[in-house]
Amino acid sequence: MKTAARQIVAFGGGGFSMESGNPLLDDYVLGLAKAERPRVCFLPSASGDADHYIVRFYRAFSAHRCEASHISLFRREQGPDDLRRHLLSQDLIYVGGGSVVSLLGVWRAHGIDSILREAWEAGVVLCGLSAGSLCWFAEAVSGFHGAPKRLRGLGLLPFSNCVHYERGSKRGEAYHGFLREGMRGGYAAEDGAALHFVGEELSRVVASRPEARGYRLDVAGSRVVEMRIATTYLGDRGAVPAAPLPEALSTAPAA
Amino acid sequence: MAAERGFSATATPVRRILALGGHEFSSSPPDRAVRELLLRLAAERGGGRPRICILPTASGDTSDLIASFYSAFGERPCEPSDVSLFRLGRRPLALRDHLLAQDLIYVGGGSMVNLLAVWEAHDIASILSLAWRQGIVLAGQSAGAMCWFEAGITKSSGRPLAAAGLGLLSGSLCVHYNNEPERRAAYLSAVGEGMPGGYGLDDYAGLLWEGEGTPSALTARRGARAYRVSSRDGEVAESPLPARFLPAPAPAALREDIAEFRRIKTMRKRAGWLG
Known about the structure:
heterodimer; A: 255 residues; alpha/beta; 24% helix; 31% strand; globular; B: 275 residues; disordered N terminus
């Protein structure tokens, strides 16, 4: 019986999908799985189950360090028959990037949304980047196609989320706008930064690049308050992990 | 008068849907016959260089399918394009405007369940329904054929199961009728249990709806058939429909070779080289 904590690691961007040759974030999520040879299942639904993406996953999560599998919802005849049983037997479920709108549509059609909640509650670690990060939150900012849009995710985490939160990005601007229009507060992460939640609480922010950061965003009156969160760079072995306390950095006045 | 046809503001465009039981975009003769049919239907609306757009959603926008579509239509007089909903991030597109500017929208095969789920998420169904009412030809094979009906038999979850479509056409459709006996069996039993009746289509058989009424059956391969499937008092009847054969055009390279041969023959005749 698994009684482990519920865990989600939401990457702003990074891992094998975006950081070829930098396995720090992938190593981090694999390390959260307590098994010696963890079972890792890749869900590439947001990419339309693109073959090249699946191949890259298997190269990154090679057989000598884990037991890797994937679920292709576009080619169900090739995969496990019982999706629920397969997903619940994993140590880590890794969701790829792509179109979050398509992702949520396809998941609903196959009942994956409720299976993932069940897996989370059973202690299976959930992670992903980009669309695979946005999906876990109650609300998300999608910049996948055209102007950034506000949409609903699965709602495992009762916050909003914005990925690829680079300085001066359109997504960032749009996120601030949505917050002022009443979107609930939440978290943003730059490429290379990952938000690690235990339960519904942010536990720490880790990064595969020394400069990458995560942010907490809230609205105070008509102002968006953005706090940069102390981040642990995963590259320096032996580095003292920074305390996971937000440091107030800036407050952005309302437009 | 024929000359006025295109100018009448009140004329209701003919609603056309071509449902195909299964084919590919290869250079095989039946595949070329299907391609020429699609091209002809598009040209009837759009003239000499019709716009033909593929929606490869059901396959997850696989590059293989998109590439074979472009290679089939690239050498023919038309403007091919694709709307890949999973790739919009790299290729932003005004979805509605693009789709409504087409003469023919072709929907590829794959997972019918995912096709309808992704279309719903992106609000594509209403655009396609409007396109149909505007006389834009809707076509497709496999999942891309069943999607136009009220229901189809999909293997989206592995085993063949009934799934709902957009319902532009009433009744149901089952594809790959000759090739997948388990799909056909699931269809016949579903119709026996109350699913609305409809049609079965072998690979390379098709049904063309032009306006209201009954469709005409077409076949691009000898022996490929379309069936009417209906239920009366729990008894399911399956009757083959008379179909028009679509001959395959000669491949482009062959057409050029034949033309060249004829030119040489004429020259030789003129020169008196041939008896």
